[in-house]
Amino acid sequence: MDYAEALTYLHGRLRLGVKLGNERFLALLQRLGDPQERLHVVHIAGTKGKGSTTAMAASILQAAGYTVGQYLSPYVYDVRERIQINREMIPQEDFARLVTQIEPHVAALERTDLGPTTEFELKTAIGLCWFAEQGVDYAVLEVGLGGRLDATNVVARPLVTAITNIGLDHTELLGDTLGKIAREKAGIVKRGVPCVTGVPRGGEAWGVIAEICREKEAPLIAVGPDDHLAAGRTLTVRTPRRVLRDVRLRLRGAFQHANAAVAAAALDAIRPDALPPLSDDAMRRGLEDAYVPGRLEQVADRPTVIVDVGHNELAAQALAAALRDDFDAGRRRLILVVGLSRQHLPGPFLEPLAALRPAALVATQPGFRPLDAAEVAVAARRWDIPNVQVVPGVAEAARRALALAGPDDLVCLTGSFYTVGDVPPALWSQLFAERNFSPCPGPSKDKSRCSSASAGSSSS
After folding, report:
1. pLDDT value, residue 217
2. CATH number assigned to the domain with residue range 3-289, chosen from the 4 options 3.40.720.10, 3.40.1190.10, 3.40.50.300, 3.40.640.10
3. pTM for this structure?
């Protein structure tokens, strides 16, 4: 297969949907030589922030001089974002080569009682095979869904596990209480392996995680508010091994502070014989350089345009706080573009954003698994958001929002990975050019200093 054919084959597995459980996937990996057994893994789960935490942990290890595989779920603009080594996406030719090699084994399994391999299983197999083939020093794996039955949970003994937080999301698959969801997330905990979590002490979710760690004799390390103290744009990060002061994260938003502390604590919890103690300099540089697209990302300056892949109630709360604290929403005229996937409820998602008193909302829907934009509009009107418009196509909805915006306004596009992904960097550049707006520099630049003099495309 060439790359286009490999993509077509991969996306053809979408029809199978989500099938939790790893008997089939383990059988596939066995046929592929069990690549997961040749990896030194950091495994990260959570309702929110697991992608950013994965990127931070991988960035720290890279700053320390290691070759690092990074597996993210899902992607924003390019499926190869999922599979990176030292922040370089897997080349198209290697992606196609691995799909070609794996396909006969998928076909053979499909003829057994184990049944067909899903799209997520295939992507995970590609990542594990690529990391093993390239001989990475460490692999940082982000859980796709839940943890216990997720395809990434095939590593028998990771170096450390981390659970960023617990919230109500994917309740139809993971359970309808924080305790039930915590039990699924904590399924990545392994006997004797340290587990780091940002879940607050004392609540239902904490109790479940602590219980499972006790059962598995896994040391539990709690990351609390005192471990990530902010002063303006700088951050103090504490772990049992160190204190880092005046850290300046590239990733914006106060919600990233806890992610940074979890990433740092997780790496510091690894046994010294498996990971020699990291220097303060590597830890700092890794945290400050970490980047992952679509997380409170500013892509234009005048007006300020923010894209964020938040898609559940917990993420909306964090987004609303960041828009208020980092971008003066509430004092500036705010225009929202919101498109949700069909498994998410618009009312709870919009509630914290409505509290910012937006001037307008353009309801839209992503191209994949969309919730009808009309349902988003109904919920917006229930929260008394004025000037609600329905524009089904995300790119056209973004164009509509930019037409409503003046140079001093704030525009935010959010609601799903797919919504953000439907307006890739080149299309944003086109939309900005139509309105003579100023895009920000690319991801190699300091986005905190985006100005009207910026040139070039947004992130990719």
Report:
1. 98
2. 3.40.1190.10
3. 0.91
